[in-house]
Design goal:
This protein is mainly alpha-helical. The protein has 14 helices and no strands.
Length: about 325
């Protein structure tokens, strides 16, 4: 069922503060709304400090990471002209995982782990870009194949690193691979990257609308197709890299959110891109809240819950697409 773009965007915007307040009040020990407000107001009481120092940074990181993944997914689906494309097909998560796990294996600090993850993600981006160009020609099909091949190679390296890890280190490694916001860094860099990414992506909305009609028609209408494709790839890859280095590999957010928004009627990228940012942020924030509360006081990796949600939704979307006449 389609909805007016403005109405849907306003609805998503209204969901953000609601999901944020729910996340701040929920956990191994639920807090009253008064404690949430005191924490946001800068109170120094224990409950208020739990909100301000523990739950608020994690909630903001979830919002930023979900928005980054959904925005990257929307760009990748436009680049590959495939509504079921995912930002992880670039192999960026594999490169980031390799860097982070090597830092964990060597006993590096949390800062060193995030730095190594970013370095691995950048290495993966450069590798895919080099292979996608080949003899000078750049095409989405070659890009997709290059990403799949390098992702398989990174997975082999990750498996090798896991075999070298000590038993005490494996739990942290596995949590990172499944996606976990519990030990993420401060959310400000991710939020800044999200704002910058949307600011860079939104001016590309009109050319993206034309590109979906095919490269030949887009070229005839004045769109510089190959430079646009390169910008889309680099922007989507960098957004994915920032998300992965902050929270590990969290699947299905970048795949499901843009596709569901298109089904809801958002096909114009001028509306789709900001809606994807809001929808991805809300989805991951709610999933992380559930990960902290379902088995409290134990916490689940948030990637487990996004996969539990994403797999049936993906299968439904795939089946729906195949049955369409």
């Amino acid at each position: 069922m389609s909805m007016a773009p403005r109405t849907l965007l306003l609805l998503l915007l209204a969901l953000v503060p609601g999901a944020l307040i729910l996340a701040l009040g929920s956990g191994s020990q639920d807090l009253p709304w008064s404690a949430v407000w005191r924490g946001l107001a800068g109170d120094t009481g224990l409950d208020a400090r739990i909100v301000a120092e523990l739950r608020l940074p994690r909630a903001l990181l979830a919002l930023a990471t979900g928005g980054l993944l959904a925005l990257a997914g929307a760009l990748m689906q436009a680049l590959l002209r495939n509504p079921l494309a995912d930002p992880y097909v670039l192999g960026v998560s594999g490169g980031a995982a390799t860097g982070a796990l090597l830092a964990l294996l060597l006993g590096g600090s949390a800062l060193a782990q995030h730095g190594a993850a970013l370095a691995g993600a950048v290495a993966a981006i450069l590798g895919v870009l080099a292979l996608a160009h080949g003899s000078g020609r750049f095409s989405p099909a070659r890009l997709l194949l290059s990403g799949i091949i390098l992702a398989a190679g990174w997975n082999a390296v990750v498996a090798f690193v896991l075999t070298l890890g000590e038993p005490g280190e494996l739990r942290g490694m596995l949590f990172w691979l499944m996606g976990d916001l519990g030990f993420g860094p401060a959310p400000e860099p991710a939020l800044a990257a999200l704002v910058l990414g949307l600011a860079l992506a939104w001016p590309l909305a009109r050319p993206l609308n034309v590109l979906l009609q095919g490269e030949t028609l887009a070229g005839a209408l004045g769109v510089e197709v190959v430079p646009l494709q390169r910008r889309l790839f680099l922007l989507a890859a960098l957004l994915t890299a920032v998300a992965v280095t902050h929270a590990g590999s969290i699947g299905f957010v970048g795949l499901v959110v843009p596709h569901l928004l298109r089904l809801a009627g958002l096909r114009d990228h001028r509306w789709l891109l900001p809606a994807a940012v809001l929808g991805g942020g809300v989805l991951l924030l709610l999933a992380d809240t559930a990960a902290r509360t379902v088995l409290a006081p134990r916490q689940l990796p948030v990637g487990v819950l996004t996969a539990a949600l994403g797999v049936p939704v993906f299968l439904y979307l795939l089946n729906r697409r195949e049955q369409r006449p």
